[in-house]
Specification:
heterotrimer, A alpha/beta (180), B mainly alpha (681), C mainly alpha (312), B: 681 residues, mainly alpha, two-stranded antiparallel sheet, two-stranded antiparallel ribbon, globular, C: 312 residues, 1% strand
């Protein structure tokens, strides 16, 4: 036990800070309706994300998991992941929607209370990506639920995803982005 | 009128109502509605009169009168109504009133199936004899009334005789109650031998003449005898069989009131007649009480028959009453009359409360069973949408029995805890450790009872229906709702005004002989608070409920109407992770209790049986259906009663050899008997 | 002056409890070498949830709809009835030990019912597990608190905290034993390690969160706030009943300020202990938890035995 605590104290901080110019480089596509400013204000302090895997090849999931580690640490911006769509403000959907997951994504969307944001991550989710045209997929999330934003990449790096989320919420002026 | 109320004639008028009710129901053999109306009317009128009579008897004091002396020299039909008897008459009448109100609507389900007039006859006979049991002042008269009460309740238990389980249960009940009566008769005979009388008052006057060994034997015999009626472990096996078998309003009466007559007589004998008593009597009752409470609630958790679950909870609550009573006995034998009064008050208050909320629970369960035609909780579910008021009353009963504020169960458990705490500060090491054990048992029992009623209420009323029968369920009729609603209101009122009731119990206690010479009046409660002796603690029921309701009101107001005014609520499907939710995906009653059963597996000895039915019996890959049954072994029957039964049967078979059938042997027996008689004289 | 103190007593628990949760999360984050959310993050979460819409299941009844309000109201009532920073508020009406325990049980009752009400599989087994733990934990809690009651001679919480002598030489060992027993129950009832992981996403490992999976919007805000309140109440009971130093004995502004500061320090120490425990051990397998609770029961019984032997 003592060795564990000594190790904790000795490990250096390795957090990656996010600056304004990082945010400017973030690529986001606005798909469908842009969310209102009122809703952005509601979520600027705290955002709950439910992540749905609609038949993806797990590449985006690996990058999303990396968001919670000590390098990227998405919690410092008030963003956290939740287990149930009822608790969620934002649905983060990855993968081209396979036929088996179509109903599930639909139900998750209906189970999320308003106001909500739907963000798709990864090239597969926008129009099927490398699986486009297959008999087993429905070619993109937009065929099932209305999407607000899209973060491109195959898969996008955690920093890109993080900057994308912050740009969606437009928190670039707040102090937290300059945390070290 | 007042004179009528407070004299013996008032009591006889009370008995007359029930006699008329009994005889009158027999007249209306053919017409079910008339029989129902007649018996319900007389039961309601009789119980109302009983409530007034008991309240006035309480306020005026001792009433002692003989009906008439009979031909037999030892038997006299004499009654003695002091505050304790008046209190029990009040409890009996109160519960009878609401059960009879409920019965008006409930009995309709038995039209054309069974004889309603027989139901009325035995029902009135049962209540009348209970009243006589708690007021009898002569041992033989008491035994007669006790016996008639048992027989009448036997006929009520086997009323629904088309189901063979009910007749078996009735038989078990008959055997067990007669075994108990045999022990009681032995105890009374022993008392007679040393005091030459069956009258309770003369026995009390001469109780010092009884030698110590005989007194202890009387204690053991009376404990077993009255304990069988009260349902203490291990003499309880008839309770979970008989109470579910009877019609629900009778079950409520049996569970709420009849088993309390055993407690009444124990109080009368140990605290009133046989004083002074040694210390170990109280310790024994404390240990038995703790065992009954813990084991009762554990067996209840393993049940999925709703009425059997409630019957086991009766055993648990009898255990809690015995904890209060046992501590009173311990304090009396240690000479601390103030604390003994407190303990007795706790026991009596819990008697009243248990009668109220147990009857409420049985009545609601009866409504549910009537609509769904099954007692199995695994087939209920979602009934709160079809029977909302019944569900609400069952919820009130569940909250009361789990000792949740602001209902009455909490305050009587508070009193019991305070009594046990006082005992922990005494000097004797044996007493101290027993009280610590008792407190631990009571603490764990409270938690387990809460878990059990979450299971009972949740599996029955919440979520989605688990069978198609539920969809046809309708709300209970108006009379049933009135009966249940009045009991629920009583639960709330007895909780709020428990401070006032505290002075009532002090009154009862100070009128028992053993408490007569307390120098200063003890403070059991001021008007709004309960105050424990030595300023150990206090609680105010009124403040608590006002606080809770105020907080609830303010929270709802602030959140719903101020902060959240503009937000909308949408109704959607339960989040099911994308699958289709069927009724098989809800938690079952057995599944709910499974964890606790496995934790206490050493005591409960569960057995899990798996049955799988395959689509193709030769290639066993695709199951068609799978059933898991979780059962607990009845260890009392297995290890105590069945071996005893076998032993007695073997003895009887051996003794049968005397009946050889030849006349010569019988003449020889007569010769031997004459020789012995000549020798002895 | 007294009115001001009473108002402070009333709002202290709901106002400060999300801060406790934030502190625990921050400590856990720091031990994981992360930055973590700010300690005021739970306030922002609650504010946001209170301004969201709700989705309620078709199977839910009034029990589901009312349970969050009832649970939150019970925590407010208990919060006002326990000794926070002033032990001279002689609350003989509701300041009793058993009142606190059973009003908490009232909250647990409705929470378990709400979990079963929507008919989802998670809610059902969440309720089953919660009631299993709670059934045993309630008994252990009563015994642990009775230890303090017996050593002082009253079950009124304010009088117990007024005594201020529990760590004196006479009752030292029994207080420590009873506190360890009480701490185990604190972890059980508030759903922390090793009983439950409050940050898990795997429904099969959830105990408390499984019951609130169906809640959204304002009702979810009230549930989360009520859990935070419950933790604050337990921490206060542990701090002020077993180690009642620094609590204000008289209506003196100086004493009250010291009382509040000492309370905050004690709560912070408890939060730090819980945070460190959560970062150094794993959650126990479910059927190992009753062993832990029986240990707590035995410790409390031992403490009571020690007290009785001292009195002899």
């Amino acid at each position: 036990m003592l060795k564990l605590f000594l190790k904790i104290i000795k490990t250096q901080k390795n957090i990656i800070p996010i600056h304004d110019h990082d945010l400017k480089q973030a690529e986001i596509f606005v798909v469908g309706e842009k969310i209102q400013d009122k809703i952005k204000k509601l979520f600027q302090g705290s955002l709950a994300i439910k992540q749905i895997d609609a038949g993806s090849d797990n590449a985006c999931e690996q990058e999303l998991v990396a968001l919670s580690n000590s390098f990227y640490d998405v919690e410092r911006f008030g963003i956290h992941f939740v287990a149930s769509p009822r608790h969620a403000d934002m649905l983060l959907i990855t993968g081209p929607v396979t036929r088996n997951m179509a109903k599930a994504v639909q139900r998750a969307y209906e189970a999320t209370p308003n106001p909500k944001i739907v963000v798709t991550v990864g090239d597969d989710a926008i129009d099927g990506g490398i699986y486009k045209g297959s008999y087993a997929v429905l070619d993109g999330v937009e065929t099932i639920v209305p999407v607000n934003y899209h973060i491109p990449g195959d898969p996008p790096s955690p920093k890109m995803i993080l900057c994308g989320l912050l740009t969606i919420l437009e928190t670039m002026d707040s102090k937290q982005t300059k945390l070290k | 009128m007042i004179n009528l109320l407070t004299s013996g004639s008032g009591f006889f008028l009370l008995l007359l109502f029930y006699t008329l009710g009994a005889i009158g129901s027999l007249i209306f053999k053919k017409k079910d509605e008339w029989a129902n109306g007649w018996q319900s009317l007389f039961a309601i009128v009789g119980s109302l009169w009983g409530i007034f009579f008991s309240i006035s008897a309480f306020m005026t004091g001792d009433l002692s009168f003989a009906a008439y002396s009979s031909v037999f020299p030892l038997l006299s039909f004499s009654f003695h109504i002091d505050q304790l008897s008046a209190f029990f008459i009040f409890v009996i009448s109160l519960i009878t009133l609401f059960c009879s109100l409920y019965g008006i609507g409930y009995i309709k389900h038995y039209y054309k199936k069974y004889s309603i007039s027989a139901l009325g006859f035995f029902y009135h006979l049962f209540i009348m004899d209970m009243l006589m049991v708690v007021t009898a002042s002569n041992g033989l008269f008491f035994l007669i009334a006790w016996e008639i009460m048992s027989i009448a309740s036997y006929f009520l238990v086997v009323y629904d005789h088309n189901d063979v389980n009910n007749t078996k249960a009735g038989f078990l009940y008959l055997v067990m109650t007669h075994v108990g009566t045999a022990f009681i008769i032995l105890a009374f005979l022993l008392m007679y031998k040393f005091t030459n009388s069956f009258d309770f008052e003369s026995i009390q006057a001469q109780s010092v003449a009884i030698p110590v060994f005989i007194k202890n034997s009387i204690f053991i015999l009376a404990l077993i005898g009255f304990g069988t009626k009260a349902g203490i472990i291990p003499f309880h096996i008839w309770l979970p069989a008989a109470h579910p078998a009877a019609p629900s309003h009778v079950s409520a009466l049996m569970s709420g009131v009849m088993i309390k007559t055993g407690i009444y007589m124990m109080i009368r004998l140990f605290l009133d007649i046989l004083q002074p008593i040694p210390l170990w009597w109280g310790i024994t009752i404390l240990i038995i009480g703790s065992l009954s409470a813990l084991l009762g609630v554990l067996y209840a958790l393993a049940e999925h028959d709703i009425k059997k679950l409630l019957a086991y909870h009766s055993i648990e609550n009898i255990g809690i009453i015995l904890l209060g009573f046992g501590s009173a006995l311990v304090f009396i034998s240690l000479g601390n009359t103030l604390l003994a009064l407190f303990g007795l008050g706790a026991a009596l208050f819990h008697t009243l409360n248990h009668a109220t909320f147990k009857s409420l629970l049985f009545l609601s369960a009866g409504s549910v069973i009537n609509q769904t035609h099954t007692r199995n909780m695994e087939e209920y579910g979602g009934l709160i949408k079809y029977m909302p008021q019944t569900a609400f009353f069952f919820l009130v009963g569940s909250m009361a029995i789990s000792a949740l504020p602001p209902f009455n169960g909490f305050f009587s458990e508070w009193l019991t805890f305070q009594t046990l705490l006082q005992g922990m500060t005494s000097v004797n090491i044996l007493v101290k450790s027993t009280f610590v054990l008792a407190t631990g048992a009571l603490a764990i029992t409270g938690g387990l009872a809460l878990a059990c009623f979450v299971k009972a209420f949740g599996a029955t009323f919440l979520a989605r229906p688990r069978s198609t029968e539920v969809a046809h369920a309708k709300e209970s009729s108006l009379s049933q709702l009135i009966g249940m609603g009045a009991l629920a209101l009583c639960c709330l009122l007895f909780g709020i005004f428990s401070g006032y009731l505290g002075s009532l119990f002090k009154n009862i206690g100070t009128h028992l002989t053993v408490f007569r010479n307390i120098s200063l009046p003890p403070i059991l409660s001021s008007k709004i608070n309960f105050i424990a002796p030595n300023n150990f603690g206090s609680v105010s029921a009124l403040a608590l409920i006002v606080f809770l309701i105020l907080a609830l009101f303010i929270v709802v107001l602030l959140v719903k109407f101020v902060i959240n005014r503009n937000q909308k609520t949408k109704i959607g499907a339960t989040w099911d992770c994308g699958t289709n939710l069927t009724q098989r995906m809800e938690i079952t009653a057995t599944g709910f209790a499974r964890s606790i059963i496995l934790i206490f597996a050493g005591i409960l000895r569960p057995s899990i049986q798996n049955e799988i039915e395959y689509r193709d019996s030769k290639i066993r890959y695709f199951p068609k259906s799978r059933t898991v049954t979780l059962r607990t072994r009845d260890i009392y029957r297995l290890y105590f009663y069945l071996p005893l039964n076998k032993f007695i049967t073997t003895l009887s078979v051996r003794a049968k050899a005397i009946q050889s059938g030849s006349i010569n042997m019988y003449v020889f027996y007569i010769l031997i008997a004459v020789a012995i008689a000549l020798f002895l004289s | 002056m007294m009115i001001f103190i009473w108002i402070l007593q009333l709002i202290c628990v709901p106002a400060l409890s999300p801060l406790c949760m934030g502190i625990i999360k921050k400590i856990k984050a720091k031990l994981q070498n992360r930055v973590g959310a700010s300690i005021f993050q739970p306030y922002k979460d609650i504010w946001k949830l209170l301004h969201k819409d709700e989705v309620i299941s078709t199977d839910a009844s009034w029990v589901f709809r009312f349970a969050p309000f009832i649970i939150f109201a019970t925590t407010i009532v208990i919060g006002a009835s326990i000794p926070l920073f002033a032990s001279f508020l002689k609350n003989t009406l509701t300041g009793d030990l058993l009142v606190v325990v059973y009003t908490l049980a009232l909250g647990t009752f409705f929470l378990a019912l709400a979990g079963m009400d929507t008919g989802s599989a998670f809610g059902g087994f969440g309720s089953s597990r919660e009631m299993t733990i709670s059934a045993l934990a309630e008994g252990c809690l009563i015994l642990a608190l009775f230890t303090t009651a017996l050593s002082i001679g009253t079950t009124n919480l304010f009088v117990i905290s007024n005594a201020g002598m529990l760590l004196s030489t006479q009752f030292f060992l029994s207080t420590i034993l009873a506190f360890i027993g009480f701490f185990i129950v604190l972890l059980a009832e508030t759903g922390r390690f090793p009983f439950d992981n409050p940050a898990t996403h795997l429904e099969l490992t959830m105990i408390h969160e499984a019951m609130i999976l169906e809640y959204s919007g304002k009702r979810l805000a009230l549930m989360e706030w009520a859990v935070a309140n419950k933790f604050f109440i337990f921490a206060t009971l542990g701090a002020n009943l077993f180690f009642p130093y620094g609590i204000a004995h008289s209506v003196d502004t100086h004493a009250i300020v010291i009382g509040i500061i000492v309370l905050l320090i004690k709560i912070f120490i408890l939060c730090a202990i819980v945070g460190i425990i959560e970062s150094t051990m794993a959650k126990f397998r479910f059927f190992r938890l009753p062993d832990l609770l029986i240990t707590s029961l035995i410790l409390s019984a031992l403490a009571i035995g020690l007290i009785q032997m001292q009195i002899l």
